[in-house]
Fold this sequence. Notes:
Blueprint: H1 34-44, E1 47-51, H2 58-73, E2 77-82, E3 99-101, E4 111-115, E5 133-137, E6 148-151, H3 158-169, H4 175-188, H5 199-210, H6 215-223, H7 228-239, E7 242-244, E8 247-252, H8 254-259, H9 271-275, E9 282-288, E10 293-300, H10 306-312, E11 316-317, E12 321-327, H11 330-350
Parallel strand pairs: 1-2, 1-4, 2-3, 4-5, 5-6, 8-9
Antiparallel strand pairs: 7-8, 9-10, 10-12, 11-12
Bound molecules: manganese (II) ion.
Manganese (II) ion binds at residues 59, 116, 138, 157-158, 188.
Amino acid sequence: MALSxxxxxxxxxxxxxxxxxxxxxxxxxxxxxxIAAILQVIGLGERFLVCSHARPDGDAVGSMLALGMxxxxxxxxxxxxxxxxxxxxxxGLPEAGSIAFALSVRGHYDAVILLECDSVGRAGLRGLDQxxxxxxxxxxxxxxxxxxxxxxxxAVSVGELVHRLVQASGAVVTPQMATCLYTTLLTDxxxxxxxxxxxxxxxxxxxxxxxxxxxxxxxxxxxxxxxVSKMLLLxxxxxxxxxxxxxxxLSITHNDMVRTSAADEDCEGIVNYALGIAGIEAAAFxxxxxxxxxxxxxxxxxxxxxAAIAEHFGGGGHEFAAGCAVDxxxxxxxxxxxxxxxxxxxxxxxxxxxxxxST
Length: 359
Ligand SMILES: [Mn+2]
């Protein structure tokens, strides 16, 4: 086995990997037909490694699993690896046990496929540089850092891109695959309420249900299976909620995490409570990590490009949902991030007629 498991996994401290190197002559331009190019690499190879980012979310887990199923259906060997354990709510997904936990990889692979990683470092695995790297991403801040790149930020989830690969390969969308892919749609759209939602998103959801995904069961597993610690942590965050005009933010300290026995994954989605308030256009959630780093989740209802702010602080994401990690202490991180959001909001509203301010 080519993996080196390390049971002493720390919660990911988001050592934001060094910025991706500027495109050099080493990376070819994106192919005209990236799907065909990726399928060609798959067709010529035998052994593949599938990775996604550390602290995997529903899109990372679901798309890794579905891609693993595709590769095996095509008669290939596929290893799935992540440096962090899966959030509890995704452990019931079909073949979830096939994702191995490791901090480094070695051995022979014909290619490594990285799903929604904005750099090789984002995968959190040592040893990847020696392989032919394929980058499949749907983040607006994604870049052509790999040997073969397919970035489509119109896709609501990277699972949507994996589905296109499945279709183009002629493989069958099994009920297990459909379940994993539907999960990526459900989670990356916050339950079909944000992201690049289009009619095609719902057409894809329909296709996946027809292929065997059970939408009620998946929603129950993903949305209604939270541990108590998540609710206690949410209470701590809401008690720190602050509003200033169109901006709302909340925060939790490391002590809040300890006091509520919260896990890393319990922080997921808390930022949306701030965005859910009438009149709010931008929201931020600050989490104090041990060692005085601050993880920041950013959201916009659409008036400002929040990914640009995340990118300014070394992070990235989508136009309306992004994140970064910055140095503490907490109050200084809050001040720096809020200042950037205030500027962005002020720039937008200075350019707009006043009557549009009222909603
Ligand atoms: Mn995603």
